[in-house]
Specification:
By secondary structure, this protein is mainly α. The chain has eight helices and no strands.
Length: 173
């Protein structure tokens, strides 16, 4: 089962790198199933696979599957007593889902949680996660016509981006 999990995870990542989201989804779903069978329930490996699957389903605009996987990942994180570094990804995915569905208030609250988790994980400093979290909230504000808030968040994202070592972070944001 471990070999199957490693194979499906590698194939998922390869398909994702090639931009073939439907093929990536197939392999990621198989990796989720393999991790469940291998670990028999709640485990960090299952959380990682569920979080990846949730984000992939969001990108495919399969919002119900994405919501279910992110919710399950968060529940498992709570059950396992894992710290917020584990919650950041699924929380951000849920925020993106709410934003796509036009639920700006819910998205804003989740983006703010994501920012807090990213800043805590970076120990108050800067990281790619901090930059992305501020960028996501800025985009939400810009889309909803809250230009002053958007500019502030974009500025904070840029400040954190400038603090990253050369080559680190996504300058295209």
């Amino acid at each position: 089962l471990l070999n199957l999990l490693e194979d499906r995870d590698a194939r998922y990542r390869d398909a994702l790198a090639q931009g073939d989201l439907p093929r990536a989804e197939k392999f990621c779903a198989e990796a989720v199933a393999a991790s469940r069978r291998l670990y028999g329930g709640a485990d960090r490996a299952v959380v990682l696979q569920l979080a990846s699957y949730a984000e992939l389903c969001r990108r495919l605009q399969w919002y119900d599957k994405a919501q279910a996987s992110a919710d399950e990942a968060l529940a498992m994180i709570g059950l396992l007593g894992l710290d917020d570094s584990w919650r950041r990804g699924p929380t951000n995915t849920l925020a993106l889902l709410h934003a796509a569905a036009g639920r700006a208030e819910e998205a804003e609250a989740l983006y703010k949680k994501t920012i807090a988790m990213a800043v805590a994980e970076a120990r108050g400093g800067s990281s790619d996660g901090v930059v992305r979290a501020f960028n996501n909230l800025a985009f939400l504000y810009a889309e909803s016509g809250q230009d002053a808030k958007a500019e502030l968040c974009y500025a904070r994202a840029l400040v954190h981006l400038d603090k990253l070592p050369p080559g680190e972070g996504d300058a295209e944001l």
